[in-house]
Every structure is written in C-alpha cells, then in structure tokens.
Amino acid sequence: MKKSFRIFNLKGVPVYVHWSLTGFTLIAIVLALFNINFLAIAMVFPLLMLIHELGHMWFASRLGLNTEKIELQFLHGYCVYELAETDYENYVVAWGGVAAQAIIFIPCIFILLVFGDSLSGFFYTTLILLGYFNALDAAFNLLPIRGFDGSICWRSVPLFFKHGRIKKNGNSKKPQKKKNPFKIVK
C-alpha cells in the first residue's frame, strides 16, 4: 500500500499527501455535518502545512536551489531541497516556512482584532485558525528541538553577527562550500 500519493505539481515540484492527513481531513469533513466549524479545521490544517512548506520551497528557489518534493503528513510536512553551498543559505531556507506563515497570520490577527465581534461562526473560526493557531504553530516550530525548523533557524543568529563584523572590518573571507546532497526541512 502506498503511504503517500501525489495531489499536484507546483512549478515542477510534486506535492504528496500522506494517508494519515487524508484520513484526518475526511473525518473532519464528516464531523462538519454536525458542526460547520470542523469544515474550517479540515480546510485550514492542510493549507497551513502547505503554506509552510511552500515558504521553504520559495526561499530555496530564490537561492537557486532545486526542490525535489513536498510531502504533507498528519502533523508535519517535508520540503526536500538541494543543500546549499553555505550554512547561511540553509538557514535562510529554514526561516522560509515561518516567514510564509507570518504572511498569513499577521493580517488574519489584525482582521480579528478589528472586526472579530461582527464575524460569523465559520469565518471567525477560520480566522482564529489562520491567525492565532497559525502564529502558535510557527512559534512551536521555532523551538530549538531536533526535527523542528528552530534547530536550524537559531543557528543563523551568530552567523548574522559574524557576517556583520566581516563587513565592518573589511575582511573578505568567504564561507567554506559544502557538497550538495538533498536536505529535508520539516
């Protein structure tokens, strides 16, 4: 039995969905027959994971790195991309997922703060998920724990200051290059 199946290609990159996410989505759709808010859950959870992984893909492509595939699973996703030549470029790609989430959660939280009392149940629930839940998910993903983006992202902070000092001192040392196997970013 196949564990994942391709749902579409985006700019030549196949996007796969694991059976566990499909099962969760179908259960939420059935539950929506009893409470429409479950429809928001069924739509938003896979969408948030896709947005996060597309953020990694976008930053990788901006750095000239190939993305091999994106896979969405029940509680997480993967973006498999070509390993960059420098650590700094890998850190930028790691921040891409959270940056994509921020593009969504910031305006949603703003809309909730301004218009929250006047929104209907389904739209209110959808904005809560796209706003506050999304922001919490991004913060959780930034925890410096192995397997989370935070385990990679926070390594960029000292590197940022190092590159800043190099420019101030006029030192022109280039970072060492690494081989290019593919790397998985969760």
Give the helix/strand layout.
Layout: E1 4-10, E2 13-18, H1 19-31, H2 37-62, E3 67-72, E4 77-82, H3 87-115, H4 121-141, H5 150-153, H6 156-169, E5 182-185
Parallel strand pairs: 2-3
Antiparallel strand pairs: 1-2, 3-4, 4-5
What does this structure look like?
With 186 residues, this protein is of the alpha+beta class. It has one domain (4-185). 58% of the residues lie in helices and 16% in strands. It is built from 6 helices and 5 strands; from the N terminus they run E-E-H-H-E-E-H-H-H-H-E. The chain has helices at 19-31, 37-62, 87-115, 121-141, 150-153, 156-169, and strands at residues 4-10, 13-18, 67-72, 77-82, 182-185. A 5-stranded mixed beta sheet has the order 1-2-3-4-5. A hairpin with a 2-residue loop joins strand 1 and strand 2 (13-18). Helix 1 (19-31) packs antiparallel against helix 2 and helix 2 packs antiparallel against helix 3 (87-115). The chain starts with a strand and ends with a strand. The model is unreliable at 166-172 (pLDDT under 50).
Q: Which regions are unreliable across 5 or more consecutive residues at pLDDT < 50?
A: 166-172
| Biggest pleated-sheet summary | 5 strands, mixed
Report the end-to-end length measured between terminal Cα atoms.
Answer: 24 Å
Task: Report strand order across the widest sheet.
Answer: 1-2-3-4-5
The SS-based structural class is: alpha+beta
